[in-house]
Amino acid sequence: MFCPPDPVGCDCIAGFHGDTCEEECTGITYGAGCIQECHCSSNCSNEIGCSGGAATCSGGYEGNKCLDHVICVDGKFGEICQYSCHCETSSSCSKTTGYCSSGDCAYGWGGNDCQIALPHLFKTITINDVTATNMTIWYGWTFGEDYGSGPASSYKVLYKSEDESTFTTITTTDDVFTITGLPPNRTLEMKVRVCKNIGGQDVCGPDSKVVTESTICSIPSKVVGLADISGPDYISLSWNEVTYGNCPVTYNVTYQLIQFDMCDNTSNEVINEGPVQTASYTLLNLSAYSRYRIQVTAVSNDVAGEASDEHTVQTKESAPDEAPEIMTMSDQEPYSLTISWLEIPCGSRNGDMVYEYLLKDKSNVIIKRSITKSNTVEIAVKPCNEYTFEVYGKNQDLKGPTTSDIIQSGTVAPGDPENVIVISGKNTVEVEWEAPTSNDCTVQNYTVTLTSSGGGKIRKTLSGSVTTTKFTSKDGIKPNTEYTIEVVASNSVGTSADNGGISVEYKTQVKGT
């Protein structure tokens, strides 16, 4: 059995009180609910009070049952002083009516004599249907379950957020109310006052217990304003900050490589990075000169919003990672070199790459420097020369590793011997010359031929290192004879005679002179 506090009470039989009326009155209390007091020095029955006559009455009381008061003490009034005063500023009231001279009743009491217990809630108000901006409060007052006397004529719903100092008050006659227009993720303090119509005016009882509840965070807004600054291996992103009331917002950044080194279309797995605490983030360890697809999503309390529009970014160029591999080419032409190399593969170019190549002679002097997109070049050279060829990939001013090779130009026949000198005696002809300088091809042999005016020929073949020879009578030289002298240089390719040759006409001395 549930018994609200005075003045509603429970109808227990005389001599008992308590929620279940099973507790006997003790001390000087008696009657139904043990709310009356004995005013006698002895013979106090817990059922009927004093029974010993006036001689046993305490000071201020008289009569057979000591119920007639001479005058009530402060705080009591009524015929037998059984009622308590409920004044706001004083403990005393009119001894006969209970009227408060100040006109103001104590908190929770109303009426002309302040004897009406105003209604207020015993049960805890209920909160449900909580969203990001709304919540519904249930608080109906029920007689027998809540405090005071009814009926309830209206309610005052009071609420404030945790950072506010004053409550907002809503008056309604309904026992349920929905608070709207709240910020997300905001904690509210709420309480309810139950009001009773007294004399045509609603008078409200004490506040209920304060309850707290928080609005939730719903879906954050879409991320916009995505911008970027990129380098060869990074992309720095920024976007407009998403604010969502009091809800904490983080960001997830997803990206996908869609074109590797701008030469290989691909679709790699989507990579997710986060949570990111600010409206900016840098993606690191990316591939140079490659295209990425990027999206950013705002997240609040594990609830993700709509992803940003796809943002495509190409990273900057960097130096190539590999050196081209020169393909060895023998049997080159004498006056031009044709040189090829394997192209640097996709993924190691790191840009809109070109090849820069150099050709150096054996003195390390650069005789050719050029740039090409091809992997084959043809360069004019001199025969029988050794050259150093270097090549590397290049992106703008970013130079990759270099590879080099030594290449020999082809061989041609040697040029004509130079500065041929003939010294003649009676029966001798001595010939001297200098090695040809018209090209750098090595002379393997020299052939010196003397042809007389009569058609006879004398010939000697000498090693390429010898540049002088002597003909005598033993060789068939005759005095006073005209000779045409021809010196021819030769190698494995041909002879200088193929280019026209050189000859000198000479006459030996007359015999005896």
State the name of the first-level CATH class of the largest domain. Mainly Beta
Spans of at least 5 consecutive residues whose pLDDT stays below 50 are none
Describe the largest sheet: 6 strands, antiparallel
Task: Name the structural class.
Answer: mainly beta
Ends: how far apart?
Answer: 172 Å
Rg calc: 61 Å
Domains counted in the coordinates: how many? 5
Identify the quaternary structure here. Answer: single chain
Known CATH architecture of the largest domain: Sandwich
Assign the CATH superfamily of the largest domain: Immunoglobulins
**How much helix is in the residues?**
under 10%
Overall strand count: 43
The CATH topology of the largest domain is given as Immunoglobulin-like
Strand content: 35-45%
What characteristic shape results from the CA principal axes? Answer: rod-shaped
Count, helices: 0
Mean pLDDT: 89
How would you describe this structure in keywords?
0% helix, rod-shaped, Immunoglobulin-like, six-stranded antiparallel beta sheet, Tie2 ligand-binding domain fold, 5 domains, 42% strand, five-stranded antiparallel beta sheet, mainly beta, 513 residues
Word description of this protein:
- It is built from no helices and 43 strands.
- By secondary structure, the chain is an all-beta fold.
- The chain has 5 domains: 70 residues, Beta Complex (Tie2 ligand-binding domain fold); 89 residues, Immunoglobulins (Immunoglobulin-like); 88 residues, Immunoglobulins (Immunoglobulin-like); 84 residues, Immunoglobulin-like (Sandwich), CATH 2.60.40.10; 90 residues, Sandwich (Immunoglobulin-like), CATH 2.60.40.
- The N and C termini lie far apart (172 Å).
